[in-house]
Design goal:
six-stranded antiparallel beta sheet, alpha+beta, binds beta-D-glucopyranose, 44 strands, globular, ten-stranded antiparallel beta sheet
Length: 811
């Protein structure tokens, strides 16, 4: 069942009922100011860091769901309703929400009154703009009152939701003609305030939640709206809000629009005050003046559309498969931008106060984003590298605002270092900008410990090379990619962290998965060394990699698949002797992607085992059999009920590894089959089962052991976005940036007769036509570049600005 449809021409998903299975959200903002916005107008805004600079409140786990947001109440006689249905939930005669790229439009209609809210975050400014348009479609004059409403957060979202003994006394606002300023803590340590404004005079306002809503009422029934209007309250402590009132009289056929804004303003220390106690509003006034009318709003929206059009034009495919095109051309790339911006910090499943930016997560996000804005990828790589320790290990997370490593979680996730090589390698392949390796970057954010990025990568590689266990496999530390496989941490008491309490750095537990990474990204490191003419270092690295490959095929091989790990007692994890967790997905994906066992047949066998034991109609599960009891020696993985999350859930992030692995072996049919099972547009029809947004990937779909098999959770912020884009663009469509040029190596279903693709690469445009006359799955028979035959399938780098015509004949 569907709750809307894709409008590809407008690059929108159109939701036709407010009662979606879960709130279906969008992200507005692509630089510093962000808003999460649901299809009914719920959500919140923040500046750069969802924990430290939260502008508006959001109560997770709330009941009813999704109450806080950017609400507009329309009072029409004794009828009160919202164009987005929430929170009053008065039935609408018509409802529609269009989530577009960086903007959302919500429309509602009731009793001949149509209302439209257009939301956007303009580029270059730190604000959310909302254009509200109301029209009288009837033939009578209609007097109406309109009330916008939002609730401020007292900046630090963690503190805001816990330190009430202080918070109830600190709230402060200032009110001018059409603007409400939220200035809590501005008098002391803050240099920023928020402003909510309207572009026309108000007929009333409130800034105290209690006055507007009522002590025992709710946003579904604000007393001011249902009663006699705004009260002019000025908040002192408690809960500061912004609410305004506009009394309008609409003639038949008449429309009116009001522009609202929510801005974040920073003032330098010496310019904080206009007069004692009165904040300096000049920057806010400039912002309000800039967005004072429809022309400014329309121009900003057009600018956003042009921006996205240009970004997406870097990779556009045209194939026989509509859902494939819409994933590749629009939604997967869009999600890659969002995951790049947010890492795993703020979504409807990530509270914004938890994890900040993940080291491994952000490195992987780069893989799907680097082709869009390489300059921002460059900056990100340097930020991430600065949170690495001098020995090559790394802080597992960091705060986006401070860019400092998070000491609570610390380091010891032993896959982290290698992901830095993965991200940097992707950047080099995309851009050829070797100068990044010479950038001087601190270790542990300490400028005294700064070294070149090249040295950071060297230490990444060497960290893994020198931290090996009894079988010669890499030590796992607190966890590897699977945060929940905690082989050294024996967490036996409620509330204890599964990862960081206890002796987390055992000398025994080893990861076959990291070994696969070492081979894959070690090769990338060796190539980088060779390009820098460090021949000896490259050869030395290759020797270590060959040694590791042999160990994987020995201690890491179980007979029909790759093992997962060895635990702290030296027991196999993910082997035939295990009663539960006999076969795991991650090492099959990573080892085959690394090419381990490709010649000798183990790779082929491992993927056949995946299909036999782990595949389901909704995607591939992480392991089988699921853990049915808590295994102290394995950790958090076995704390989830069977089928959920890391305990045999369909962890979408890993599915594209299998896409890449299948393509590595030339299996185009199977690669595509795996791809389509989790690709949102392909499963739009089962939205009532899947439940999360049909335009973006979710982290997890409940596995076959779960009661709710097929139900997704944790949408938007997942490495699935980047890896799926990599899988479809590089492994299936076969357009692969290499250090020396663009390689074309498609691996597609035999039934696909071909496709065309336009790709921007190092400033040149490649217009590629792939033909598959013999119905093969893999292999390039002939390639013509600007009409001339090419030896091999890597097109040497072309001049920026040029257009290259490429014809690829498979066979
Ligand atoms: C984390 C990833 C991790 C994955 C598997 C996600 O929630 O963000 O870093 O690799 O879970 O545990």
């Amino acid at each position: 069942m569907k709750y809307g449809f894709f409008d590809d021409a407008s690059r929108e998903y159109v939701i036709t009922t407010p009662r979606t299975p879960l709130p279906w959200i969008n992200y507005l903002g692509c630089e510093s100011f962000f808003t999460l916005l649901s299809n009914t107008g719920g959500g919140y805004s923040f500046y750069r860091d969802a924990r430290l600079r939260r502008l508006t409140r959001y109560r997770y786990n709330n009941c009813p769901l999704d109450q806080e947001g950017f609400r507009i109440y329309i009072k029409d006689g004794c009828n009160v309703w919202n164009p987005g249905w929430q929170p009053v939930q008065a039935e609408l005669d018509r409802y529609c929400c269009r989530h577009g790229l960086g903007y959302t439009v919500i429309e509602g209609e009731r009793d001949g009154i149509a209302a439209r809210q257009e939301f956007m975050v303009p580029r270059g400014d730190n604000c959310l703009l909302i254009r509200f348009t109301v029209s009288n479609g009837g033939d009578e004059t209609r007097p109406l009152s309109v009330f916008p409403y939002l609730e401020f957060c007292l900046w630090d979202a963690m503190d805001d939701s816990s330190n009430f003994q202080r918070n109830y006394s600190t709230g402060e606002v200032e009110v001018t003609a059409s603007a409400i300023y939220h200035k809590t803590e501005y008098r002391e340590r803050r240099d920023h305030y928020a402003v909510f404004w309207a572009n026309r005079p108000v007929d009333g306002f409130d800034t105290s939640r209690e006055a507007f809503i009522g002590t025992y009422s709710s946003p579904a029934h604000p007393e001011a709206v249902f009663g006699s209007g705004c009260t002019g309250s000025v908040a002192h402590g408690w809960q500061p809000i912004a609410a305004q009132q506009f009394d309008l009289v609409l003639q038949p056929g008449e429309s009116r629009s009001i522009l609202f804004g929510l801005g974040y303003i920073e003032n330098p220390e010496e310019e904080k005050w206009e007069s004692p106690g009165i904040i300096n509003k000049s920057r806010a006034e400039a912002l309000m003046a800039k967005y004072a009318d429809d022309t400014a709003f329309d121009a900003a929206l057009q600018d956003l559309r042009t921006y996205w059009e240009d970004l997406l034009s870097g990779f556009q495919v045209s194939s026989e498969l509509e859902s494939l095109d819409r994933m590749v051309n629009i939604w997967n790339q869009y999600q890659c931008m969002v995951t790049f911006n947010m890492s795993r910090s703020a979504s409807y499943f990530e509270s914004g106060i938890g994890r900040g930016m993940g080291f491994r997560d952000s490195c992987q996000d780069l893989l799907g984003f680097v082709h869009m804005i390489p300059e921002r990828a460059r900056e990100r790589i340097l930020d991430i590298a600065a949170t690495q320790f001098p020995d090559g290990s790394a802080y597992h997370q960091y705060q986006p605002l401070t860019k400092k490593g998070n000491a609570d979680i610390g380091s010891g996730f032993n896959d982290d270092p290698l992901w830095l090589i993965a991200g940097t390698d992707a950047y080099l392949r995309e851009t050829g900008d070797w100068s990044i390796l010479d950038e001087i970057v601190p270790f542990d954010n300490d400028p005294d410990l700064a070294r070149s990025l090249m040295e950071h990568l060297r230490r990444s590689f060497n960290y893994t090379r020198t931290h090996l266990g009894p079988n010669g496999l890499p030590l796992i530390g607190r966890a590897d990619w699977n945060d929940c496989l905690n082989l050294n941490c024996f967490s036996a008491h409620p509330g204890e962290s599964f990862q960081v309490s206890g002796p987390s750095d055992g000398p025994v537990a080893e990861s076959v998965f990291i070994a696969g990474m070492f081979v894959k990204y070690g090769r990338a490191w060796a190539d980088i060394c060779r390009h820098r003419e460090l021949e000896d270092e490259a050869a030395e690295a290759e020797e270590a990699i060959a040694g590791m490959e042999a160990i994987v095929l020995d201690a890491g091989w179980d007979g029909a698949w790759f093992r997962r790990a060895y635990d702290a007692f030296g027991h196999v994890v993910g082997g035939k002797e295990c009663e539960e967790g006999r076969i795991f997905l991650e090492p099959q994906g990573m080892c085959v992607m690394a090419g381990i066992g490709k010649e000798s047949g183990q790779a082929e066998q491992a993927l056949a085992s995946v299909q036999e034991y782990l595949d389901t109609p909704f995607g591939i599960v992480l392991h089988q059999p699921a853990y049915t009891r808590y295994h102290l020696e394995l950790g958090e993985i076995s704390s989830y009920p069977p089928g959920y999350k890391e305990n045999a859930g369909i962890f979408c992030h890993i599915n594209p590894w299998i896409v890449c692995a299948e393509a590595e072996l030339g299996h185009g049919d199977r690669a595509f089959e795996v791809y389509r099972k989790t690709a949102p547009a392909f499963i739009e029809d089962i939205s009532e089962i899947h439940r999360t947004e049909p335009y973006v990937y979710s982290q997890m779909i409940a596995g076959k052991d779960a009661v709710s098999f097929g139900e997704a959770k944790n949408s938007w912020l997942t490495g699935t976005a980047a890896w799926s884009f990599l899988g479809v663009s590089q492994a299936i469509l076969g357009v692969k940036p290499t250090l020396d040029g663009l390689q074309i190596d498609p691996c597609i279903p035999a039934s696909v007769s071909g496709f065309t693709l336009s790709r921007r690469y190092r400033g040149a445009r490649y217009e590629i036509t792939v033909e598959n006359p013999d119905g093969v799955q893999h292999g390039v028979k002939e390639m013509l570049v600007d009409g001339c035959p090419l030896a091999g399938n890597v097109i040497p780098v072309r001049d920026a600005g040029s257009t290259v015509q490429v014809r690829v004949i498979m066979g």
